[in-house]
Amino acid sequence: MADDALDKSACRALARARVDHLLALLQAQRQTAAVSTATDLASHLARAIDAFHMEAIRFRMYTLDRLFASGTLDVPPEAQDLLADIRHALEGAGFQTRSISH
Q1: Average pLDDT score over residue span 15-23
Q2: Average model confidence (pLDDT) for the chain?
Q3: Rounded CA gap, 69 and 89, in Å?
Q4: Does residue 43 contact residue 23 with C-beta atoms inside 8 Å?
Q5: What residues contact 55, with CB distance under 8 A and at least 6 apart?
Q6: Are 89 and 12 in contact (CB under 8 A)?
Q7: What angle do CA 46, 49, 54 make, to 5 degrees?
Q8: Per-residue DSSP letter, 82
Q9: Among 60, 66, 41, 58, which Cα is nearest to 94's?
Q10: Could you give the angle at the alpha carbon of 34 between the alpha carbons of 32 and 37, nearest 5°?
Q11: For residue 16, which of 31, 45, 50, 54 sits 20 to 30 Å off, Cα-Cα?
């Protein structure tokens, strides 16, 4: 059980580090409305991870996914890869990152 908690903690720390990397990447881009929105959402996601706020994590990931899929966000492909890494790490930490159909 302790190993599982350690693994989840490591996954959460990895997710947080990837969010920081995504934030740096977004802040280095030309600040269009879409990039500014993505930067704000990533910043909110970082705070949600720090606070263990499950609903905020799920909502921010959902909104970032939609923004990235919209085609309005002009960022390098690395940003999409980082978003996938963040999702994988958060799910490894036990957070739900996708909406569930009822």
Answers
A1: 98
A2: 92
A3: 20
A4: yes
A5: none
A6: yes
A7: 130
A8: H
A9: 58
A10: 110
A11: 31
Give CA–CA dist 88/76, Å, rounded: 20
pTM: 0.90
Map residue 13 onto helix, strand or coil: helix
Q: Is the pLDDT of residue 2 over 60?
A: no
Q: What is the crossing angle of helices 77-92 and 54-69, to 10°?
A: 150
CATH number belonging to domain 2-92: 1.20.1440
Rounded to whole angstroms, how far apart are CA atoms 98 and 7? Answer: 21
Tokens for 19, please give them: 């969010």
Domain boundaries, the chain: 2-92
Question: Scanning the structure block, which residue is given the tokens 């909110």?
Answer: 44
Q: Ramachandran region of residue 31, left (φ > 0), alpha (ψ -120 to 50) or beta?
A: beta
- pLDDT tens figures, 30-53: 999 999 999 999 999 999 999 999
Q: Which residue stretches of the chain are H helix?
A: 2-27, 33-50, 54-69, 77-92
